[in-house]
Amino acid sequence: MEKMLSVDVEKHLGDFTLHAQFEIGSQVLVLFGPSGAGKSLTLNCIAGLVSPDDGVIRLGERTLFDYDAHLNLPARERRIGYVFQNYALFPHLTVRENIAFGIRNVSNMRQRVDEMLKLVGLSEFSARHPSQLSGGQQQRVALARALAPRPELLLLDEPFSALDAPTRMELRRELQTLQREFKIPMVFVTHDLGEAYFLADQLAVIHAGKILQLGAPGEILRRPCCLPVARAIGVKNILSGIVESRDANGCRVRLGDAVIDAPLYPFDVETRVSVCIRPERVMLLRPERAGRSSDENAMHGEIVREMSDGMTATLFFRASTARLAATQDYDLQIELPVYIYERLDLARQRQWTVSLRKNAIHLIES
Amino acid sequence: MTDDGLTLRLPSSVIRPSFQMNYPSILLSIQVTFFATIGILFIGLALALFLARTPMRGKIIVETLINLPLVLPPTVVGYFLLIVLGRDGITRWLGVNLLFTWQAAVIAAIVVAMPLMVQSAKAAIASVDPNLENAARTLGSTELEIIWRVTLPLARRGILAGLVLGSARALGEFGATLMVAGNIPGITQTAPLAIYDAVQAGRLGDANVLVLMLTVLSFLCLFAVNRMQQQKMKDER
Asked: Which residues pair with A272 in a beta bridge?
């Protein structure tokens, strides 16, 4: 029987209101959003460290919290594992003692701890204290400690945010392996989009205390439901437009001075829309290729500014004839790998034709 | 010690100190301090845990009351204790007269030492990372188990420092003890009281040993506390 986690809670903290509602099986749900959105608060409500003001929390056949029924199981009885952002390892105990902390059954304690140590690859470190371990090792101990009592659900609050990039990658993969092995639901909080995309079976974008969109990560990335979600998931080009016409093939949207071909959306003519285009989906056309009629939404212009972080180059493109956004000095942000930047000699070649593929355009009603 | 009212001449017993042991007062001091320390430990720890972890509106009033003996004149503390322990106070309730007994000396010592213990222990307990306690909760510990397995072990330095400081203070208690326990040699005359007696009577020789002993003991206590604080700062870095 798959263990289902069902959450529907409300919590008021001064001006801030959290309303979290979702249901998952033995999968990974990633709560993604900026700081202060209410992600940690949601975890604390589920874990029983904070009492919601209304709602119900169910795990499997057990009800952990039911406001109307005056039911509020204390944290120690919920059988939920929690991995904290700063590890929260007991500094006065050894690795072995830390992992054994939540195990009640003394008879197979040693065996279980040995098992967990092997699982996270820290068997030789069992006698050390947390202060003698690296960040990645500490986080592995925290994971082992949370999983040792065989919880029915695992909560993780930005567990890898304090680690260097290679260690993060490693631990993400290890966590995925652990989840598939233990087959329990996991709720993972992060503000790192790449991490969210990698780990999530289901992605929930949370903003100002509300879950704005919940679904498969690929779907959310391609079709954000509203502007806050679009901004959160990296849509750098959000332009205001009006639907000019609509037929069986798609919509035509007026954007500033230009008119572009967008996919079919159920919007009437004259509807105000926000046009969302991911920066990596704007195509630069080679000069010898430009001018072919099959290129969708082609426009000429020049690169007025650029930025680079060493791996990805961000270009700011300004259309020469038909401007899309009159308010800024550029119309589109374009992202491409630095090696392509070098290959196309973008440092010197500034005049370009860009193409917006129809399927790279997403419309949100304003 | 002047002869013409102008020149100060020190008595011979100070210039050539003589040392006579006043065993009863030393033993009494040890006895009173020992039991006072036990009382300070349990009552002080309970108060510190309460103050550090329980949210309560009037907490600051409770704290101020506990800290009062730190600033009140010892005779005022003694006066209040007289009322509580006297004929119309606990005595009526318990059926036993506690005044002018060594037990009263213990109570007076506990009261004046309590602020030192509670301050130190409370700070140490409050400085334990609440996430550690939360982690313990998610791992199935009851609140008592958390206090025993997580909070107290991590706060042990501050608690020990408070206890040592409190004991030192208990050892040196004078004013309140004088009022509720009296100054009965052999029964309630602790070392500090014996010193007072001896100096009043000009028997400086009697006072010398006790003064030396109390000074050395207090020095050692403070030294130990400072070492512990140093150690704590080193650990935190």
From this structure: A242
